[in-house]
Design a protein that fits this description.
CATH topology of chain A: Porin
Largest interface: A-B, 71 and 46 residues
Strand content of chain A: over 45%
Number of helices of chain A: 3
Distance between the termini of chain A: 14 Å
Oligomer: heterodimer
Distance between the termini of chain B: 47 Å
Shape of chain A: elongated
Structural class of chain A: mainly beta
Helix content of chain B: under 10%
CATH class of chain A: Mainly Beta
Number of strands of chain A: 18
Structural class of chain B: mainly beta
CATH superfamily of chain A: Outer membrane protein transport protein (OMPP1/FadL/TodX)
Strand content of chain B: 35-45%
Order of helices and strands of chain A: HEHEEEEEEEEEEEEHEEEEE
Helix content of chain A: under 10%
Largest sheet of chain B: 7 strands, antiparallel
Number of strands of chain B: 24
Radius of gyration of chain A: 22 Å
Strand order of the largest sheet of chain A: 2-3-4-6-7-8-9-12-13-14-15-16-17-18
Order of helices and strands of chain B: HEEEEEEEEHEEEEEEEEEHEEEEHEEE
Number of helices of chain B: 4
């Protein structure tokens, strides 16, 4: 037990105030870029394995797949290139989109898990130059708007396996978080004092979800999930400001064991972010729209005797993005991923890694390319099978 | 296990510490909000702007005015020194002394070099010179017979210290009769190729102050104490003017002697007091006539916030960092702009200071300048407070 505690202490030391997915130009508007609280294994398959993965925060029924008490952490350094009419820029950051602990409840058919994951990310720093006219004189100004933070979700999930073929699950979410915003303007004319204003926006909401995994046959599994999130109340500096409706989510997936070495997964999801459109517009935003997401992937075992040793994972995903930069547009992302992993210390610890290359685009001239390394570390201190 | 764990921890730590988030963008495409900057002009509260005088008298500044045929003012400087004793004490022993020589010194603080042929005249004055001494008294006392010395000033000199020594027969010019109780007083007059004015340093000017030093020999066998100097500091220094200007209640006056200061009150709405971030604030004062003064002799309009509004007795804040200045020169008719952004913060918050400015001239009572600015009673010349401020940034915007 010392090792996971040590690891958690170590990682907690450099954990940012909010664990978020990644910084993106599509996280500037609305509530930000939706997070991906998924394990490195799932990210390696393009997210298509999420509904079956006990280490991911997607389907509460999947917690029954954890073989033993498991503690995990996902780290995600990323590199991005923005292309906007203002030019190109290369950006870089590191996020921790998921931490979890969970496992089966000894002597029962139930499992429980607690996780902290990213719900939406609003990290950005925008810099602009302009010339404004004050008192009849044009003055060059430089503006900077910074936002650090986002929304997180704390999940308590229960799973129940009534039979060997079916798992059921339910989870409750506490959606919380805040982001510190700061706006600065510096004038070229020193007669003008620089502007520096800041505010803290904090969010609160909750959600419920239910899920199922069913083995149709030894080779084919199906999974489904439905989730309802409440309105998020937004406070500015502890003063209520407005509410934003959060979406319903539905997702379904299949897992096909094509052979003893090959696993094929696919998933589709739909989130009713469009219900937030009126609230976003009322708050001065451009708007929001409901999103569709699909993904598919494979996991190929390179070692038949030890399938968990350096498997090859490949995946692709397409997701629409909820918050618009321009009215009437349909922002979306398309990504490819690859990954692998290894378990060691008598299968008590595992390290998974994935590489994800995603392009996001909206209107002409607004696009970004991201390259992410996803590292996942999970530890089962009592070993697989132990309860 | 240990090796893998270490590698993982090192990799995570290395990657976790790198952030580069700033991105150039064009608004409004990617801007979740924008600054709203407002430019506005406030006018003073009508009839709540006034001038008061009598704060400092002539001679209380660092300079004494001397002028001749100068349209701005006609002034004579007078100086009286502390009494020179008729004996000195050395090691608890009182000794008589023999006066060997005397030196008198004055410092020319400023003159207009466009006026050539400047001569400073030192006149002997009665030892009773004090604040009751008038311009008429000076005119009576300044006779050719009472001239101690004349100093021709090089036409290129703007400022210099002049020291004159009197020895032998010249000592009579500065001899002090027994009835004068050792008190020496002199006055300063000027002549030049045309009417002009000068400033000479007053007793407040430190080492530039007028000086009176007596060099004496003491009848003692100790050679180390044989020769002594007896310096005397200024007891009274001032200048007298032919006519004192009358304070015009319809305008805002600063400067002069006795010095005038002006109080200007502005309306201050709660929106500015509570939430606006003031980026620039400029007090604009409009001269109603060309600023009188000595050519090239720059004075400054000083503006300070008041701690409390008690009218003419309002105390200005003692923190000089909130006081701001703007130059004013002779003949100026342009608007005087004083940047007062720094003191605006004192007008904001939960316990703001009164929205009132104290306006005065620097140096006070030393300058020939006496600007008169328009008030709320002079249409077209009303003072203005020009504000540029930012409203709250719309951080709530999505």
């Amino acid at each position: 037990m010392r090792i996971p505690l040590l690891l958690l202490a170590l990682t907690g030391g450099f954990l940012p105030p909010e664990s978020a997915a990644q910084s993106s130009m599509f996280g500037v508007r609305g509530l930000g870029l939706p997070g991906q609280p998924l394990s490195a294994r799932t990210r390696g398959t393009g997210g298509s394995f999420a509904l079956f993965d006990g280490e991911s925060d997607a389907n509460p029924a999947s917690v029954t797949a954890l073989p033993a008490l498991t503690v995990g952490l996902v780290s995600s350094p990323g590199w991005r290139r923005w292309d906007t009419p203002a030019g190109e820029v290369k950006l870089q950051d590191t996020r921790f989109p998921l931490m979890f602990i969970g496992g089966p409840i000894p002597g029962s058919r139930m499992a429980v898990a607690v996780s902290i994951g990213s719900y939406a990310d609003r990290d950005y720093e925008l810099a602009t130059r302009d010339t404004v006219v004050y008192r009849g004189v044009p003055i060059a100004v430089r503006d900077t708007v910074t936002s650090l933070g986002g929304l997180n979700q704390l999940r308590l999930a229960f799973g129940f396996r009534p039979s060997g073929r079916t798992s059921l699950g339910a989870a409750v979410y506490w959606i919380t978080g805040s982001h510190r915003m700061e706006a600065k303007r510096v004038f070229e004319d020193s007669a003008y004092l620089a502007i520096r204003q800041s505010a803290e926006l904090s969010y609160g909401g909750f959600g419920l979800s239910a899920g199922v995994i069913h083995h149709l046959s030894p080779r084919l599994e199906l999974a489904g999930m439905v989730r309802m999130d409440s309105k998020a109340s937004v406070d500015r500096d502890s003063t209520p400001a407005y509410d934003v409706d959060l979406p319903w989510s539905v997702a379904g997936g299949l897992l096909w064991r094509a052979s003893r070495r090959l696993l094929v997964t696919a998933q589709g999801s739909y989130r009713t972010w469009g219900s937030a459109d009126a609230d976003v517009k009322a708050a001065g935003g451009i708007g929001a729209r409901s999103t569709l997401g699909v993904s598919a992937g494979i996991e190929l075992a390179t070692n038949r005797r030890q399938p968990s040793r350096l498997p090859i994972r490949l995946g692709a995903h397409y997701n629409e993005l909820p918050f618009l930069l321009h009215t009437g547009e349909r922002p979306h992302e398309l990504g490819l991923s690859a990954g692998t992993g290894v378990r060691f210390a008598q299968e008590r610890a595992g390290l998974d890694a994935a590489l994800d290359y995603t392009t996001r685009k909206e209107a002409e001239g607004f696009s970004e390319r991201t390259f992410q390394l996803i590292l996942g570390l999970s530890i089962s201190p009592y070993g697989p099978g132990a309860r | 296990m240990n090796r893998s764990f270490r590698l993982t921890a090192i990799a995570a730590l290395t990657l976790a510490c790198q952030e580069k988030l700033a991105a150039p963008v064009e608004c409004p495409d990617l801007c979740p909000g924008s600054f709203e900057i407002v430019d506005t002009v406030l006018s003073p509260v009508v009839d709540a702007d006034s001038s008061y005088e009598g704060y400092l008298s002539a001679g209380q500044g660092r300079s004494l005015r001397v002028s001749w045929q100068f349209p701005v003012s006609e002034d004579r400087a007078v100086v009286r020194f502390v009494a020179r004793p008729d004996s000195i004490t050395i090691n608890d022993t009182v000794y008589a002394y023999v006066l060997d020589s005397v030196s008198l010194a004055i410092t020319l603080a400023y003159r207009d070099t466009a006026v050539k042929g400047l001569v400073l005249y030192l006149y002997r004055l009665p030892p009773t010179v004090d604040s009751t001494f008038t311009f008429a008294d000076a005119e009576t006392a300044f006779t050719p017979a009472s001239i101690i010395d004349s100093i021709l000033v090089d036409d290129t000199l703007v400022t210099d210290r002049f020291q004159r020594f009197y020895i032998g027969p010249d000592l009579a010019k500065v001899s002090i009769p027994p009835g004068d109780s050792g008190v020496l007083a002199f006055g300063v007059q000027i002549r030049a190729a045309q009417g002009t004015g000068v400033r000479i340093s007053s007793q407040s000017a430190g080492t530039d102050a007028p000086s009176f030093i007596s060099y004496v020999t003491v009848a003692t066998s100790d050679s180390t104490t044989l020769v002594r100097t007896v310096p005397r500091i200024v007891r009274y220094g001032s200048y007298v003017s032919q006519s004192l200007p009358v304070l015009d209640p319809t305008v805002l006056t600063i400067g002069g002697a006795p010095s005038a200061r002006s109080l200007i009150r502005f309306p201050w709405p709660t929106s500015l007091r509570d939430s606006a971030q003031i980026l620039r604030a400029t007090l604009e004062l409009l001269p109603v006539n060309p600023v009188p003064g000595l050519a090239g002799d720059t004075a400054f309009v000083a503006v300070a916030p008041v701690l409390a509004d008690f009218g003419s007795k309002s105390p200005a804040t003692p923190d000089q960092s909130f006081t701001t200045f703007a130059p004013v020169v002779a003949g100026q008719t342009d608007t005087v702009h004083v940047e007062v952004q720094r003191m605006m913060r004192l007008w904001q918050g939960t316990q703001p200071l009164p929205s009132t400015f104290w306006v005065q001239l620097i140096p006070e009572t030393s300058s020939f300048a006496r600007p008169e600015f328009g008030s709320t009673r002079t249409p077209g010349f009303t003072p203005r407070l020009r504000l540029t401020f930012a409203r709250d940034f719309p951080f709530e915007g999505l």
